[in-house]
Amino acid sequence: MTSDDRIVFIGPGVMAEAMVTGLIQKAGVGADQITFSGPRPKRLEELAERYGTRTATDNRDAVDGAQVVVLSVKPQMAPDVADGLSGAIPPTALVLSIVAGARLDSLASRLNHAALVRAMPNTPAQVGQGITVWTSTEAVTAAQKEQAQRILSAFGEELFVGDEDYLDMATALSGTGPAYVYLFMEAMVDAGVHLGFPRRIAEQLVVQTVKGSVAFYEKSPSHLARLRNQVTSPGGTSAAALYYLEKAGFRTALSRAIWAAYERSVELGMGKKRGPVGER
Q1: Separation CA 193–CA 183 (nearest Å)
Q2: Using CA atoms, how far apart are residues 73 and 78, in angstroms rounded to an integer?
Q3: Which CATH number is associated with domain 7-162?
Q4: How many helices (DSSP H) and strands (DSSP E) are in the chain?
Q5: What CATH class has 177-269?
Q6: Which of 3, 33, 130, 220 is in Cβ range 3.0-4.6 Å of 156 for a Cys bridge?
Q7: Which of 10, 151, 141 is nearest to 86 (CA)?
Q8: Domains in the chain: boundaries
C-alpha cells in the first residue's frame, strides 16, 4: 500500500475493525487512508474516535476514488449492498470480500466489477493471530494480488488457494473453528467446576492447557496422534477419558458439525435462507 491509497470498508463490523487495527498497527497504513461506510452513525463515530479513520453513510460516495474496497457486511445483506454499489467502484480498484458464502461470479455480476478477491478470515484476527484463506478472479493483477496479501497478512497468516470451493471449506473449518474451540473449552471449565474447582481456577487451568498444547505442537515435528499417545499411558487416566470420548462419538459429532457448517456456507452462496437451526 502506498500513502496515497484509499481503503473503504463497506460494513463497519467486528472483523472490519480487526482488519483496520492490523493495517494501522502492522502495515503502516494511515488512519486517514481508511474509510468506514455504514448506516449507523453512532457506530461510525465510535470507530472514528477510536482510530481516527474517515466515515461515510453513503456507500456509493464512499467508494469514489478508492483503490481497495472491502465488503464486510453480513451474508444476508450482501446482495442488496452489492446491487447498490453496481457501477460505482472505480474500474482499477480491487474489491476484497470477506462475506461468508458469497461467490465471486455472483459478486462480480452484481457489482459490475471484475477484479475481486474472496477471503475467509477468522476472529483471532482481532489479536493478530488469524488465518485467512483467499482466492481471486482472473482479472486481479499480480500487483493487486500482492496488495491483497499485504492487507490479509496484517492480522495473521494468509493462504492463497486456486479453487474457490476451498473457501466454503475454510469457512467451516477455520472461519467457524473458534466457536468449536470455545465450546470445547467451556465444557472443560464446566467439568472442572463440577469436580470442585472454583470457576476462575478451572478457567486458568483450561486456558493454559490449550495454549501450552498448541505451543508444544508447533515446536514438535510429531503427528497429532503421536502427541496424543505420549500422554496416554496404558490403563491410565488419559486412556479412560479418551475411551469415553470415542464411545460418545466425539470425533463423529465434530466432523458432522464441520460438515453442517460447510453445507450452510454453500447454501449462503446460493442465496438460500433458513429458519431455526435444523430446519430446511
Answers
A1: 15
A2: 6
A3: 3.40.50.720
A4: 12, 8
A5: mainly alpha
A6: 130
A7: 10
A8: 7-162, 177-269
